[in-house]
Design goal:
By secondary structure, this protein is an alpha/beta fold. It contains 15 helices and 27 strands. It folds into 5 domains: 71 residues, Histidine-containing Protein, Chain: A; 114 residues, hypothetical protein tt1634 (3-Layer(aba) Sandwich); 112 residues, hypothetical protein tt1634 (3-Layer(aba) Sandwich); 118 residues, 3-Layer(aba) Sandwich (hypothetical protein tt1634), CATH 3.40.1520; 139 residues, OmpA-like domain (60s Ribosomal Protein L30, Chain: A).
Length: 639
Amino acid sequence: MRLSVIFAIAGTFLMAAMLCLVAAGFAATGIEDNARSSVRSELDKEGMTWAEVDADGLQVFLAGTAPTEAKRFTALSVAGRVVDATRVIDQMLVEDTADIAPPRFSIEILRNDSGISLIGLVPAAMDRDALLEQMTRAAGDGDVIDLLESADYPVADTWDVAIDYAMRALNQLPRAKISVEAGRVAITTMADSPEEKRELEETLNRRVPTGLRISLDVSAPRPVITPFTLRFLIEDGAARFDACSVDTPEAQRMILAAARAAGLEGAAECTIGLGVPTPAWGRAAALAIGAVAELGGGSVTFADADISLIAAQGTPEGRFDDIVGGLESDLPDVFALHSVLPPPDVEGAPTIPEFVASLSPDGVVELRGRVGSQRLRETVDSFAKARFRSGSVHTKARVVDGLPLDWPVRVLTGLEALGFLANGAVVIRPDTLTITGLTGRKDASAQIAGLLAAKLGEGAQFDIDVTYKVALDPIAGLPTPEECIAQIATIQETRKINFEPGSPNFDENGASIMNDIADVLSKCGEIQIEIGGHTDSQGRETMNEELSQKRANAVLDALRARRVLTSNYNAKGYGESQPIAGNDTEEGREANRRIEFKQATAPEPAPDSDGSGLESLEQEGQEGTAEDEGTEGVPVEQD
């Protein structure tokens, strides 16, 4: 083969290689430019203009300074959507954490029958072991799942206060979600009944430390009302409800609007509950209330689908027939209306027999009037002793003949209704039953109306005049913490708690004073109180502080001995550090030697062994015991 042919073939291959190299270079450049522009475009859409993009072959480089670690991760994710994530090379920096605001520390505590779960971000300085130990005790046999993260940032002083309150609340709530932040606690839970809901809200609100904001969302199932009862009356021109049950908020608005049109003034309560006999309840009740208003007086009582309408005495018969006839036509078919027009008064009518049961404020029950047989008299006496205290029932009823056949039922029903009152009376006559008095139960009128409607039957006439008094309510009637402290201060104005000189032992008057203070505190429920001990400035400061602590402990122990609940009480000795008068006179020193009761923001925490400051529930309100470690050498402290 000639040399020229060989050079021609070699040149051809060399030219082809050069063309391939140039094409590959253009292709690589195109890929780089396309990857760079695509990633740049996506980052700009996400507002990440701080990120820098470069490409080298198939690799994409991200550079720049991210505002946060989260932003850096987001930029990598955005680039990974455009090109293969394995081709993205991270060369980004993150701004100095010293310039970033601290995170919002929070804990979500979720509790149910299986245990407790913890989710959130807590300070790194927090003693998590102590927190988990408390959670384990609260969970009992349940599991504690720790999903907490930590960050090394400072936290507000109110963080520990919020954690402490959340732990106390958790011990009362078998099912709850508690959200904790510095200075704020939000609680979502469920009660088994409206009464339990009210009691739980009252307890949680009374134990809130100063400076802590709380949010309570306590739900309760709608009560099952049986019979489903409504009773509306117009007497002497005044309209009122004795009972009002509804199934929906819409029915509630409909009924209250009809009642106000009939003359009802002021607020009225209609309980939303379960057990309604028909969805047409609201419409039927509104129609019946309107009929009573047209009659100019009387009452209407619903017991499930049975309606009893009783006109006021003296209502013209023609007017009564027209209004009742219209109501019968308008009512839904499911309802049965029984209407009564009382006869007019007749002069010279015979004496009407009656039975009267009265309940005094101190619990004494007196039964008098007429019963139909000796057996009924004994039955009534036994029933009253079972319903009330047996030693407080006095029976003076006499046996007579000729009473109505339903007299035993009316008498026993009246006694049962009397049990809803704190004090009052029930008067039973052949054609009517009247109950009057005071109660500490908001729903007493509704409960009584439902009872009487169910037991006395259709067309029964009864009158309920029961007044709710907050002071008689075992929950709402509790004095406020401020009122409790004021009552104790009133006792101490004339009867000071004194001790033997240099000793934590009470003087001869101490026992009676502590009895009176214990009587006040036993009615105050769970409130947070600090018992402060103070001395004058005679003697060494450290010994005065020790003596004041022992005296405060002695007061705390005396209250415990009198069965006062002291779990939220805290005893603290201040020594001579807080004088209220000069120590240069005997009168001033006498004033400075004192025991003070004041409302505390939170029980004084006993420090943990590691100094973290996280309180233990068992240490709450405890400052040691009132042990007398000896008082020899204590300078004179005359009391």
